[in-house]
Amino acid sequence: MNNDRDGLRRCRDCSEWKPLDDFCANSKRPEGRGSYCKPCFNERSKASYARRVRAKFDREVRAGRAVPEGHKYCSACDADKPFDAFPRNRADSSGYASYCKPCHNTKTRETKERLYGGNREYHLRRRYGVGEKEFQELLAEQGGVCAICGGADPQHLDHDHRTGWVRGILCFNCNGGLGQFRDSPMRLARAITYLRGTTWQRALIHPGVYQMCSPTRGRPPSRRF
């Protein structure tokens, strides 16, 4: 019996004629589509999985939960919620994570605490490949101050964005400054040259009397009367 007709195919399970796009891909079948439409194929897959679980583990697979259209079930809080209540997750067939946003955040914090001892250790390990122990050792080598300005209690781990290697520990301003200059020695050198050539200085012209002297270029500071 011919199951194909004018771009349509009859599903072997539901016997309905449907467009080829409604059938699962199968390179071994004509037109590259299988014999079962996608809903019937999914039902067959679930039944096959249940048989394998029953045979291998001697237990039954729980029936899927009926969820309203546009909603997803969060097993952590045992509630059906709209899709926008879940964070995005491209790895899931629905496009959303398994837990709603509050439950997702709670479980993320618990996982970080259990595996890394806290969010800071997780952040250091994942982004820089070091932990709080290595951070404190490096800070001690710097004398407990920012490696650039010498400010106390720096908290930012600086790294080479090209190689990923950790370079030192900086304060917020110095770390941000390097980022603004794109870690470029040339830009930093030109900035130093610029400052030296445009900074106004005091010159002693009479005992106790000073005058602001400017470099050859630039304009004098504005005066307020």
UniProtKB/TrEMBL annotation:
InterPro entries from the UniProt entry: Endonuclease_7, Endonuclease_7_sf, His-Me_finger_sf
Pfam family, one: Endonuclease_7
Name the record gives this protein: Recombinase
Organism, scientific name: Micromonospora arida
